[in-house]
Amino acid sequence: MKAWTAALALVWLSATVALAACPPSAIVIKFAHVVNATDNPKGIAAQMFADRVNAEMKGRVCVEVFPNSSLYDDDTVLEAMLQGDVQMAAPSLSKFEDLTKVFRIFDLPFMFKNIAAVDAFQTSPAGERMKSVMVPRGLAGLEFWHSGMKQFSANRPLLLPSDAKGIKIRVQPSAVLIDEVKAMDAIPQAMAFSDVYGALKTGVVDGQENTWSNIWGQKLYKVQDGITETNHGVLEYLVVTSVAFLNSLPPDIRHQLLDILHQVTVERNAEVTAVEAASRQAILDAGGTIRTLTPAQRQAWITAMKPVWADFLPDVSQANIDAAQAINARF
Ligand code: SIN
């Protein structure tokens, strides 16, 4: 068989296998996300959710997961969801900017001490209320999923925010993150996640901020001088579906589906710190450089970035900031 005939046969076979995976009578849920399926807490949780639904709902519902931006990237997935072309996704909270400003609290630098504090905030009444803020825009928030604390990486050592003066840093499309980078006297560049590795490799940007699992999963450490353990922010996801799709489900199916999703959420969110620690270690084992900060250096990052809070007070509310700070004090 010629090489191209073999390739065509392979494509046909994978398409057939993919189509065969869902019984014809099943309600099909396409779950699109942008990370890999094995290293990132979201990728692992999405696959676990699909496996459980497909095993336990006995062909009534069938979940197909599309990782690595293979179906939609974060710029297009929400519009596609409103059109009914994809049923579930879990974009980072920074990607809902056009729909709501309440999630900006999660982007504010040094707002949350750690992921345990984020979890406590999200499961508080204030956090629970946030899930439904986009219902008037047609999107229902179902569960918050954690990714972890963010670190800065660059093509030069960053020990103080001033070390980033004048360099280009990729951020998600979030007004808060853009201001955070400006507070370092650096130049923010918003771009899609799928473009970050290439942009760092070719020098389109010099640095970026992300969680250990994304830096490991996307191999970003390979195209950076090093990673600075700043723990300056959090990367959090909201599992969303369209209100129209949710309402179209028979009540018993909706109940079972949301129940499985909640169980997966609790189980995987509890594992996130371990997943992040494993990614951090994997970077070190692969020869990546990680720089830790002295207390004085860390204070310099806080001093440079915390003034950003004031600009976003009307969006996030003093009450929510106070609630987050009170929760921090418990951890
Ligand atoms: C993600 O983890 O879903 C992407 C985060 C990013 O865009 O940096």
Model description:
With 331 residues, this protein is α/β, with parallel strands linked by helices. It has one domain: 3-Layer(aba) Sandwich (D-Maltodextrin-Binding Protein, domain 2), CATH 3.40.190.170. Helix content is 45%, strand content 18%. It contains 15 helices and nine strands. The strands form two sheets. Strands 6-5-7-4-8-9 form a six-stranded mixed sheet, with helices on both faces. Helix 2 links the parallel strand 1 and strand 2. The protein is globular. The structure holds succinic acid (SIN). The site of succinic acid has 9 residues, from loops.
In short:
This protein has 331 residues and is α/β, with parallel strands linked by helices. It has one domain (14-328): 3-Layer(aba) Sandwich (D-Maltodextrin-Binding Protein, domain 2). It has helices at residues 3-20, 41-56, 77-82, 104-107, 115-122, 125-130, 175-182, 196-202, 212-217, 243-248, 251-285, 295-305, 308-311, 313-316, 318-328; strands at residues 27-32, 61-66, 88-89, 139-154, 168-171, 187-190, 207-210, 226-242, 290-291.
CATH-level-4 superfamily name:
Bacterial extracellular solute-binding protein, family 7
CATH class: Alpha Beta
Bound molecules: succinic acid
CATH architecture: 3-Layer(aba) Sandwich
Largest sheet features: 6 strands, mixed
* SSE pattern, N- to C-terminal: HEHEHEHHHEEHEHEHEHHEHHHH
**Count of DSSP strands:** 9
Using the coordinates shown, work out and report the CATH topology: D-Maltodextrin-Binding Protein, domain 2
Tally of individual helices = 15
Beginning-to-end CA distance, first to last residue: 63 Å
Principal-axes shape call: globular
Total count of domains: 1
Strands ordered across the widest β-sheet: 6-5-7-4-8-9
